[in-house]
Structures are given as C-alpha cells and as structure tokens.
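Known limitations

Files may contain more than one protein. Parsers should not assume a single record per file. Below, a two-record file is shown to illustrate correct handling: read the sequence, read the token line, then continue until end of file.
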Amino acid sequence: MYPRKHNHNLLRDLGVIFLSILIAIILAKTGVLSDLLLKANGSLLITAFIAGVFFVSVFTAAPATVVLIEIVQGHSPFLVALIASLGALAGDFLIFRFIEDSFAKDLSDYINHSKLKRISLIFKVTPIRWFLAGIGAMIVASPLPDDFGLVLMGIAKLRASIFIPLFLVLNFIGILTIGLVMK
C-alpha cells in the first residue's frame, strides 16, 4: 500500500500545480500579464527578463512572446534573446527544482509503491534517461513552452551543473529564433 505521508505530498504537489495553472490562465486571459510587461517598456532589461520568466510556461508563453516580439522591433534580437534567456532560465530553474525535488520524487514514490513499479525501472536505465533528456532539450530549444521538456529533464534527473548552462543556451536559441523571424 502507498504510504499516507507520500500520498499527502503528491496531493499537495498536484494542488500547487493546479493553483499555478489557474493563476497563469487568469493572468493570460485578463491581459494583466501583457499590460504589466508592456508598461515596463522603459527598461529593456526588466521587461525582457520578466517576459523571459513567463516565456517558459504553456499558460503564459503567448503573452510573453507578444511582448518579446514587440521589444525586438526596437532592439537587437541578440540582446533581447540574451536578457530574456536569463529570465527564462530563472523560470525554468524554479519549475525544474519543484519538479525534481518534490513532484518527481512523490510521483516516483507512488509508482514504486504501486502496481506500476516495473515502469519505474525503465527510467533508471541510463540510455533511456539520456534519451528523455535529449527530447526535453529539443523542446526547450524550440520556441514552444518548456513545461513538458522540464518534466522530461526532471525524470532524467539532470544535475543543476548541466541544467543551468544547457538551459541558458537552449532558451537563447528559442527566443533568438522568434526574434529573428519576427524582426
């Protein structure tokens, strides 16, 4: 039987994810996020960084992308991509730490204590972990939101020493691609 403590943690984690999604949807649908980012247009550093933070989530990527496209119209796409990729790294790192430290561990505990234990053995095989990390990296490098790529990286148990430079470069490529196409 699955331990009650871990069951509570998994429910808490799912609740936090649900609440985060709900807040992100409200911010995106009401236009508050776009307005906030566009009103900070006096500072390229602040606006691009904040847009980068919001660029990584599927629920806030659209308004953040609109803001990044608008910023690129008046600035170098390389400079905007560099600043926004630092923000995206910060957003990705927060999500990744949550996924790796809490959600992935609780999910793993649940799987290990249920009838799905055999499935968990697949993710311990090094080539499978590298394959998942590679797929996750491709998702992060694309202009698509990073959420699913982060989940794959969390499952692959990517170390922070690899995560930070890798995600900085991958986010830079994704944001630069948007900037160059829309310039």
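...continuing to the second record:
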Amino acid sequence: MEPLLAYLHYLSIILLGAFLTAELVVCRAPLTTAQVRQLPRLDSVFFAAAMLALATGLLRLFVYAKGVAFYLPNPAFIAKMALYVAIAVISIVPTRRFIGWRRAVDAGSAAPDAEAVARVRRLLHVELALLALMPLMAVLMARGIGR
C-alpha cells in the first residue's frame, strides 16, 4: 500500500503543477468568454490535486514512510508545509477572481481588463515559484538534512 500511496502523492503534486501552469497559460489578456469560463474549471482540478497531495502526504506522515518522529523536527519539513500553506493562501485570490469573472461574463458583462488579468497572473507566478521550491525541501527532508 505504501508504494501506491507514494505514487498518488507524487502524481498529485505533478497535477498540481500542471494545472497551475494551465491556469497561467489560459489567464492571459485579453481574455475571451471561453477562457473566463475555463479558468474556474482548471482551478477546480488544481484544488482537487492540492487536496489529494495533502491527504496522501498526511497519510504518509502518520501511517507510512519514516513517521512523525522523523519529519516533525526537521526544518525542511516545516518549510515544505509553510510553502504549501503559502500557496493555498495565495491561491484564494485567483480562485475568487476566476469565479467572479465567470459570474460577470454569465451576467452579460465584459471580460476583465488587462490590469485585472495581470494582477492575477502575478499571483499565479508566485504560486509556481513557491511550488518549485517544494521538491527541494522534500529532498532535504528525506535525507535528514537539518535534523
């Protein structure tokens, strides 16, 4: 069961990066109505991947892998969790914007202007940059560096 859980954990992280990248690719001014409607769907899959990564990670922490005693005192583990939380908090703004844009377009309003899109794109770039640091923390953590 542990190898399957590890596989699902890694797969969810890959999906997380893929769908965050897809959001960045689609979220480019000028947005079409189709793109405005597509962004919340992409964001939903991004959220599902984040929840799967969290669930499988917690199972690995508490049930499998090296156990709580190995991970919790490790600063790299704490940094990895802080990165995850930071990405989650930052992602609230794009999610709210995507939903708001879709509702506005569905109500007959115009797509968001270039400045609104640019602000969201900056947040997506930050999320991707933070996500790129997570594998480094995982490597350091797995090797016990920082203990």
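Parsers that stop after the first record will miss the second one. For reference, the second record is described as follows. Helices lie at 2-26, 33-62, 68-71, 75-106, 114-142.
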